[in-house]
Amino acid sequence: MNAAPLSGGATTNNSSSTYGMTPEQASKNFDVLRREATKLERHLEDRVARYQQLAQRLTVDNNSSTSDNDPLGQQSSLMIDSGGSSSSYTTNSQTNKSNLDEEEATLSKDIHRTMSTMTELINTKMAPAAERTGRSQHLLLVKRYREILFDCGADFNKTSAAVARRREAKELFRGATAGNGGGGGGANPEMEQLLRERNAIDNSMKSANSVLNQAASVRTELRSQGASLRGVGGTMAAIAGNIPGLNGLIDKIRKKRQQDDRVVSGVVAACILFTLWYLFG
Hints:
Layout: H1 23-69, H2 71-80, H3 85-133, H4 136-181, H5 189-280
């Protein structure tokens, strides 16, 4: 299977060129990155959906192969088809299983590569470009793409873990069948130990991925809060810049009132003096 070409490497040298841009240029650059992220999103969703369908096929094939490994099933098939058709069926099923395994490995590599490219695009290019434009809708778009990436990664990890569990169960069944055929020795203890260690490592990786995802979410929220605080600081600076004008207006009003008080006081004094002069003059 040929993987679709990715466009994540087309803008590797564009992250440094966004510095020193005007808001209009930064918006145009963000639109280019958004289109690229949309292509990666569709590619990732398509690959994850195909991987889930492939996992269902692997489940059916694993169940059929398990029935082929059953001695009773082999005896019944030999009783029904005595012309050697059971051996050809087993060979065909093994060939199909090998093809499915190769397709699963190719899809898994393609999904990992797409997730890595999309993560790099969002964290190193889109997020700085969104902060540079200063538009809230751009920050929301970055958050949306991160949520899409997280959801697709969670679906892929869940499906991949289910496929791994089916394979481990198949390996354990094969070991038990081989041990019973060799004289009732049971499953291979070394294989069981390796499987237990692998399960422990997988659980540790899941826990680490969960912590990293939570840290990324907290980092995004902190950046959003920082942008909000910077906006509040700009508003307070504008208000502080207008305060000197308000103080000047208040001083003018105070001076005007003082002038009015002087005029009224002068008129009252003149009236009193005129009254005294008229009465005693």
